[in-house]
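Treating backbone geometry as a discrete language has practical consequences that deserve illustration. Part of our work consisted of pairing the sequence of a single chain with a tokenised description of its backbone. What the numbers capture is local backbone geometry rather than side-chain detail. For completeness, the protein is quoted in full, as a sequence line and a line of structure tokens:
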Amino acid sequence: MNQKILISRETAGKIRQLFVTACEKHLLNLGSAVISVAGTTGEGCHYCLNEARAEAVAHAARQKWFSDLMPSDTIYISGPMTGYENFNRPAFWRMENVLHLAGCRVLSPAHYQDGASYETLMRLGFQMVLDASALVLLRGWDKSNGACDEVRVANVIGTKVYYEN
């Protein structure tokens, strides 16, 4: 029968070294005791990272343009943010993982600081579009005024545009 044990962060650190850096979810599956680790998340968990990589590989396989990418490419991710929970960052991060598989340098508005004005964010976005060799448009981009403006800039300067499948 499993028993629940609450441990300190210091002890959790020692356990993580033994179990190849694991989050609470994965520690539950590693031993006979159910372990609740105070203050841990999935960030940096060896097992979560492997799951994220597997998801990125599967997502990359669905993108018809993925094989066109070169490690020297700098890709800007454009898509809807306003009105989405957490500014749609999980969709941007998922695509970022896919692009990193191809070895590309990734520029993404998902890394902006919260609280900046829309105008400031668009200036930063336009600068990144100018610096990119290609854009990847996330689903729903056509319903985003900002993403539509970024596509217009990319079209004017001849930047390649790819669409998420």
Q: What stands out?
A: The mean pLDDT is 78.
